[in-house]
Write a structure and sequence with these properties.
The chain has an eight-stranded mixed sheet, with helices on both faces. It has a five-stranded mixed sheet with strand order 15-14-16-17-18, sandwiched between helices. Strand 14, helix 12 and strand 15 form a beta-alpha-beta unit. The chain has two domains: 256 residues, Bira Bifunctional Protein, Domain 2 (BirA Bifunctional Protein, domain 2, 2-Layer Sandwich), CATH 3.30.930.10; 89 residues, Rossmann fold, CATH 3.40.50.800. It is an alpha+beta fold. The two termini are 54 Å apart.
Amino acid sequence: MKTSFQNIKGTFDILPEETVSDGTTIAGTEAWLFVESTIREVMGRFNFQEIRTPILEPTELIARGVGQLTDIVSKEMFAFERGDTHYVLRPEVTAPVMRAYLQHHLGQKGGVQKLFYIGPCFRAERPQKGRYRQFHQFGCEVIGSGDVRADAEVIALMTAIYRAFGIVDTKLRLNTLGDEQSRPRYREALRAYLAPYVNELSPTSRQRLEANPLRILDTKDEKERRLLEGAPILIEYIDEASRAQYEELKALLSDLDIRYEEDPFLVRGLDYYTRTAFELESAHVGAQSALAGGGRYDLLAQEIGSKEPVPSVGFAAGMERLFLALAAEGTPLPQPKAPDVFLVALGDEAVRWTFSEAQRLREAGLRVAYDLKGRSMKAQMREANRQNAPVTVIVGKDELASERAQVKIMASGEQVEIAIQDLIAYLKGL
């Protein structure tokens, strides 16, 4: 019996036209191209340059960069080995970008590296609305600057991208995590606060209580969130330099009229963050409300092999969640492009002519379609309608003999006779 293959659960095909996959609407190719080009345009205005890293990365890079105790590393990686080499399908892009920065000695170029990316990532999590096993992520990294203006610029860039799409009903959550010296004091205070409630915590949170209690702040369990209402506040334990940096960041955001809400429990889900942490949310994309998020990660470079820390800050965002937000806003997206002209051939001689003429018109910059099934004139005209061609050029034996084609304007039904040698000029003038 023949097998009928389908895409793997948690993945989807992007077709020329909008489709539905597992109950979720998937935009067509033209819409994806439009969204990607808009992101690139905004990134360009902020003087960021694109970087493209491999989908395959060493498993150890992700494990050390993201953190051994994160859900990504412990539960969600698509990891495998070939011979003695261990690989992973990248679950995020920041660690690969930092790997590329170090490998290619980009820091020796001087100045600050301002990089952005767009591409697929992979996580073995339970598929749900806006969350897939293969998903698409875009984001940016500012590498080589510890200036708080870099933090503010990354946040400004993130919000500018969503404004470019008309998505303004969002909430920016903001926090500071302190530095690597001050955070252990808070970790112990949080552990001491939660210790009496250990039997009320989930197995995952009990494990985190010993290994990294800050991760419990990221819990989605309502019972645990109520327990945290009386927990100590991180900012009360951080160092003065981090506190001053945080105050300056808030002032810079206010200068740009970027509104924010302080969230003392915002820690983000990755271990490499220090000081600044932020998240952009929308109430219109379901229970998982985050659109984008990021922060400062000055220690990541050392985690993956650098002798010195490399001050860095960035954000990452999901394309699929952006599409959910666009749908919630009712934003119209581009549909498949129609041909500029559809060539209709009557008879074998005209069929042969149509094949050559299509190439001549295409070289002149026109988008050209014609029948590839040898159908009747009536069927060819139906196909022209199906493809929404605004104009058809009809040629048969008589037209070839007189070197004059019949040109029909599909909307009005008007038909005119045009010299074949004048077709390009006429069609471009419509």
